[in-house]
Design brief:
Elements (H helix, E strand, L loop, with lengths): L3 E5 L9 H4 L2 E5 L9 H7 L5 E4 L7 H5 L6 E4 L9 H6 L3 E3 L6 H16 L2 H9 L20 E5 L3 H12 L3 E5 L5 H7 L1 E3 L2 H7 L2 E4 L13 H6 L5 E4 L8 H9 L5 E4 L19 E3 L8 H20 L9
Parallel strand pairs: 1-2, 1-3, 3-4, 4-5, 6-7, 6-9, 7-8, 9-10, 10-11, 11-12
Helix pairs in contact: 5-7
GO molecular function, one term: glyoxylate reductase (NADPH) activity
Keywords: Oxidoreductase
Pfam families: 2-Hacid_dh, 2-Hacid_dh_C
Length: about 325
């Protein structure tokens, strides 16, 4: 019997796929960092039964039309705004993602970004690298305290709760806003549910962990930044399009807020010419929220388990509902 065919849109170490090689015919794009060109992807999916993809791969009607045998699309991410779920359903294709396995790792990165931004770690490192450190001074690279401050978490899902748990260790006052209240989290984390407006007015640190939807598109806009404290620090580890980047640049330039730490951007990748990269009070990193060796390996394995489950008839572990 002919093996079912899986196509992978990035180059990943063959050793990761060894457990699946006997069951399936596996092909992948030859480069790790560069996305597969659209025309090559459309050709590759013609024979694919399963597709292992990244957030940068657009899974739309055109692609699904080119893939008559496709049964499952497995996204290497929690987010899935790159997948047209309605079209996938029309074509009988199951879409999956990788929740849970990256929660703690992403929360680690989010809190690390918060700390680096507050204490000006990147700026301080550059200060020495450019040989500016000549003397000690009382307020040299003085940043903001984190302990006993108020953190406002927008989006209290798994990652939001994990960030709140870290904030608790810093004796922070925890506010959160979410589509629905989380009584268990309120009790366990001593978190207080507030309106979005109250959160952005009162929090010293505002952390965005929301999914990208019509409701969250440009949620953090000019009006939102104007309501924040002038000492507020904004952190985004959700999706770039939840932020009006022009408004954020203006808020940082005009000192309407103190600083921002960003792992995601509206259009990725950005370059060193991006307006945010010109600002000393913006810390920008390249979408590495879940990028630990251990977690990325678990994510890849979950993607493959989802594909294998669908193709073998046992079902996906984490199908998108």
């Amino acid at each position: 019997m002919e093996k079912q065919h899986i196509y992978i849109t990035r180059k990943i170490d063959d050793a990761v796929f060894a457990p699946y090689a006997e069951q399936f015919e596996i092909h992948m794009w030859e480069r790790e960092e560069d996305p597969v060109p659209r025309d090559i992807l459309l050709e590759a999916v013609k024979d694919a039964d399963g597709l292992f993809c990244m957030l940068s791969d657009k899974i739309d009607e055109e692609l699904l039309r080119h893939a008559p045998n496709l049964k499952v699309v497995s996204n290497l991410a929690v987010g899935y705004d790159n997948i047209d779920l309605d079209e996938a359903e029309k074509h009988g294709v199951i879409a999956t993602n990788t929740p849970d396995v990256l929660t703690e790792t992403t929360a680690d990165l989010g809190f690390a970004l918060l700390m680096a931004t507050a204490r000006r770690i990147v700026e301080a490192n550059q200060y020495i690298k450019t040989n500016q450190w000549q003397n000690w001074a009382p307020y040299l690279l003085a940043g903001s305290d984190i302990h006993h401050k108020t953190i406002g978490i927008v989006g209290m899902g798994r990652i939001g709760e994990a960030i709140a748990n870290r904030a608790k260790g810093f004796d922070m006052n925890i506010l959160y806003h979410n589509r629905s209240r989380k009584p268990d989290a309120e009790q366990a984390l001593e978190a207080t549910y507030v309106s979005f407006d109250q959160l952005i007015r009162e929090a010293d640190f505002i952390v965005s962990v929301v999914p990208f939807t019509k409701e969250t598109n440009k949620l953090f806009n000019q009006a939102a930044f104007e309501k924040m404290k002038s000492t507020a620090i904004f952190i985004n580890i959700s999706r770039g399009a939840t932020v009006d980047e022009d408004a954020l640049v203006e808020a940082l330039k005009m000192n309407k807020i103190k600083a921002a730490g960003l792992d995601v951007f509206e259009v990725e990748p950005i370059t060193n010419e991006h307006p945010l990269m010109q600002l000393e009070n913006a810390v920008c990193i390249p979408h590495i929220g879940s990028a630990s060796e251990e977690t990325r390996t678990k994510m890849i394995q979950l993607c493959m388990d989802n594909i294998a489950g669908v193709l073998n008839g046992t079902g996906a572990k984490t199908a998108i509902q």
